[in-house]
Amino acid sequence: LATLTVGATGALLALGATPATADDHTATVSVLHAVPDTPVDVYANGELLLDDFQPGTLTDPQELPAGAYDIAIFPADAADDSGEPVISGSAEVPAGANATVVAHLAEDGTPTLTPFVNDTAAVEAGNARVTVRHTAAAPAVDVRAGGRPVIEGLTNPNEETLTVPAGTVGADVVLAGTDTVAIGPADLELADGSITAVYAWGDEDAGYQLAVQSIGAAHSAPSGVPGGTAGLVDDEGMPATLIALSLAGLVGAGVAGRRLVAT
């Protein structure tokens, strides 16, 4: 059993042991399944949230009431949610936050859950913001752009953010301090004013992959590009059901997933 953990950037997502509650404020939440070879069913507060959630799938962002959520993840199509979960824990989502919750492997291969807060502040015209998140069962890595390190010694489950000129960036991921390529190379298309999160995930047996999330364009340029898919995300749909807390109780909402293409 793995308990829910909060990444270094998840200071606004606090752990809680109390029953899940919500108020009348909302937060924007996406979920990324980054545990290889493990389809799962995801429950929130005892209700099915995502059914047969496939590895490499990212849900569309969904507005949810802020509050605490008790999360339990079981092998897909288990008879019910009464057995031992693969991952479980609680996280509080603050009002106004934009967050991505990632089910992934820790460095030692243990399944874990890490919520990341997405920075949606405006990006200066002509630039793009890129956040790289290490969620793979691997030691520290360097991220290279154009063959030179731009992020060094990134460890699981941490992140680092860069502001770069908009355009096409060729990047790869190597073991820290070496030229041993773990992922890539891959081209990232970074639109003017875009905000992008890149996740390194997987393990040695299943292989290492990149997932790319377009968080949205919050730029100052008047001719900005609207948010949407970018980089390695394609448009294949994956229907799922998202059950969210409301003041009156649990209410249903639709969520469309997007399949991520492996490098």
What does this structure look like?
The protein has about 260 residues and is mostly beta strands. It contains no helices and 19 strands. The strands form three sheets. Strands 1, 2, 3, 4, 5, 6, 7, 8, 9, 18 and 19 form an eleven-stranded mixed β-sheet that branches. The protein has a four-stranded mixed β-sheet with strand order 13-10-16-17, with no helix packed on it. It has a four-stranded antiparallel β-sheet with strand order 12-11-14-15, with no helix packed on it. The chain is globular, with a radius of gyration of 18 Å. Residues about 1-25 and about 215-263 have low confidence and may be disordered.
Q: What order do the SSEs take from the amino end to the carboxyl end, as H and E?
A: EEEEEEEEEEEEEEEEEEE
User: How helix-rich are the residues, as a percent range?
Assistant: under 10%
Query: What characteristic shape results from the CA principal axes?
Result: globular
The largest sheet is:
11 strands, mixed
Query: Would you identify the regions where 5 or more consecutive residues have pLDDT less than 50?
Result: 1-23, 217-263
What's the structural blueprint in terms of helices and strands?
Blueprint (H helix, E strand, L loop, with lengths): L1 E2 L18 E13 L5 E5 L2 E7 L3 E3 L2 E14 L11 E7 L4 E8 L5 E7 L9 E10 L4 E5 L2 E7 L4 E7 L1 E9 L5 E10 L3 E10 L3 E11 L15 E13 L4 E11 L3
Parallel strand pairs: 1-7, 2-8, 10-16
Antiparallel strand pairs: 2-5, 2-6, 3-4, 3-6, 5-19, 6-7, 8-9, 10-13, 11-12, 11-14, 14-15, 16-17, 18-19
